């Protein structure tokens, strides 16, 4: 993936350089230049190469996917009132909310302009772009609701996170010349990986090493954020009549005993359950990859990436 | 145009009916169902018919243009903090700003989904979509600036208003089978018409009949809004050393003598200048239409529409 990231960084740098001056475009360059893992555009290139295409031929679409991802970050940060993104002020803080709304809109248009070469790419992109919006809408709705079922939560993270990995791979596969069946299998591999990735993220909040994650341990729990751990924790607690989580949630967030919450979640078996879920998606992802009729060596880069994403400690 | 509007209204109603439930989609239907003139989608259909196409074949793209226009209204209303749209609460007031941001984003994606049938349509739409964002950005920037030159103002309204009429006609013309030269001529006709229309709008604020416009006379002047009248008024006042406008602008808006401002603008020759500008764009528009190699009868509906738009009293 390192070579891919280099290609992508060069393309992003070149694109930012060529932007006209002014407050419509400056926030795009600002956000794109914050260091990121560039997983989604790398998946576009890898999806293309898997089927024998050249990474260079998918660079426009890879950039388009990264623009789309950054458009969602710009708008989500307004909606979530997040002051920081990757340790730097968010666009609506550094400029203002109006600038972030409008620059995000224009960034979505810019993303689309890179998706017009193939009708299939255009269709895949549009379908998933809409699902990402639906995911964000569910996420906001869940915050306001008292109760969220775990199936609803999974449906939300599927849309909000997993489908963009799916579409990145499918777009790359399309450019690489894959047939529809193989393309969809590869997309499904990405979607399972995305779900596993998000669940790993949820787990790391409570059980990760803060020196590696760079985040406060149990920050999501302190904020009462409805992640897999809290949602399943509350469901399990109701079954066994444990009141620990309810008690802590009833307190103001600064008074919550986060260690006690983490212990309860562990004892309720939710940590193990999340690990099992991750393993299930991991297996499902690899089965999809197995089913694609190509020699195994070609699939190695994707397997390595999946491993890195899922076994990460941060 | 009446038949076109009927076709469009039916398509909009059908589209709204088919939307999934939930707060992502409900604001789209709410905004689309507010009564509107549907000028832009009608132009798509008229552009198509001018070159011998059937209106029905351009209905998807006409709907796409109306979705795009409503997406810009939804986001502009947040940015301008407007409480009302066509006499009803704006989306960010009826729901909230986050819902308006996200529903607008999804509406832009939905608009794009209707623009994928032809690569030419896709390209025209994308280019103009970006210019509309640039126009809104300039509009917001001008509000913060002390001085705006009239050329800058015209460049702003060109992007913010006129290019969408241009692209509506060009998209219709493309579907109708026009050659590139005729298509661009028709687009240019729309752009001149759009500029004239906006200048007429500026004039009506000060010199229209409030019983017909339904707006407070001189509302823009009271708010110090930088329209053609105020920008050119201040330029002309500096030339002839008239201090009326400066004096009034120095007062708090509720104490401004709007009648005195209107009188000054008239005496400075700015009313006549705006009328002359409108006439120039009107002539230019018709010259473009003349140059299209089709029999005159086919062009009649567009000439009638232009007349209605420019000679309107409200």
Topology readout:
Two copies of one chain form a homodimer.
Chain A: H1 2-17, H2 26-33, H3 39-50, H4 59-79, E1 84-85, E2 88-89, H5 91-94, H6 97-113, H7 119-144, H8 150-176, H9 180-207, H10 210-213, H11 219-222, H12 228-240, H13 244-250, H14 258-267, H15 270-291, H16 296-310
Antiparallel strand pairs in A: 1-2
Helix pairs in contact in A: 1-2, 1-4, 3-4, 3-8, 4-6, 4-7, 4-8, 7-8, 8-9, 9-15, 15-16
Q: Give the termini distance of chain A in whole angstroms.
A: 18 Å
Please count the helical segments of chain A.
Answer: 16
Structural class of chain A: mainly alpha
Count every beta strand of chain A, where a strand is a DSSP E run of 2 or more residues.
2
String of helices and strands of chain A: HHHHEEHHHHHHHHHHHH
Name the chain pair with the biggest interface and residue counts per chain.
A-B, 32 and 32 residues
Query: How would you describe the shape of chain A?
Result: globular
What topology, given as strand order, has the largest sheet of chain A?
1-2
Radius of gyration of CA atoms of chain A, rounded to a whole number: 20 Å
Percent of residues in helices of chain A: over 70%
Uncertain stretches of chain A:
none
Oligomerization: homodimer
Mean pLDDT of chain A: 95
Largest sheet of chain A: 2 strands, antiparallel
Give the DSSP E fraction of chain A (strand runs of 2 or more residues): under 5%
């Amino acid at each position: 993936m390192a070579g891919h990231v280099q290609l992508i960084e060069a393309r992003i740098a070149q694109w930012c350089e060529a932007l006209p001056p002014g407050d419509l475009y400056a926030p795009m360059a600002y956000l794109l230049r914050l260091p990121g893992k560039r997983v989604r555009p790398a998946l576009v290139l890898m999806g293309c190469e898997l089927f024998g295409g050249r990474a260079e031929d998918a660079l426009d679409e890879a950039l388009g996917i990264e623009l789309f991802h950054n458009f969602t970050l710009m708008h989500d940060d307004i909606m979530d009132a997040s002051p920081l993104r990757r340790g730097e002020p968010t666009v609506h803080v550094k400029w203002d909310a109006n600038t972030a709304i409008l620059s995000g809109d224009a960034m979505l248009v810019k993303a689309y302009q890179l998706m017009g070469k193939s009708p299939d790419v255009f269709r895949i992109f549009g379908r998933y772009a809409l699902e990402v919006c639906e995911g964000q809408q569910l996420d906001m709705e869940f915050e306001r609701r008292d109760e969220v079922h775990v199936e609803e939560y999974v449906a939300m993270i599927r849309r909000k996170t997993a489908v963009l990995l799916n579409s990145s791979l499918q777009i790359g596969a399309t450019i690489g010349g894959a047939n529809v069946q193989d393309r969809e299998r590869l997309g499904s591999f990405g979607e399972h990986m995305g779900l596993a990735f998000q669940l790993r993220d949820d787990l790391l909040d409570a059980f990760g090493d803060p020196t590696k994650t760079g985040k406060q341990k149990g920050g999501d729990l302190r904020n009462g954020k409805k992640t897999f751990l809290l949602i399943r924790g509350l469901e399990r607690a109701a079954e066994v009549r444990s009141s620990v989580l309810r008690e802590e949630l009833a307190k103001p967030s600064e008074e919550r005993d986060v260690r006690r919450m983490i212990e309860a979640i562990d004892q309720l078996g939710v940590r193990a359950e999340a690990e099992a879920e991750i393993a299930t998606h991991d297996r499902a992802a690899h089965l999809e990859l197995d089913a694609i009729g190509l020699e195994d060596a070609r699939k190695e880069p994707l397997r390595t990436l999946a491993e890195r994403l899922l076994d990460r400690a941060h």
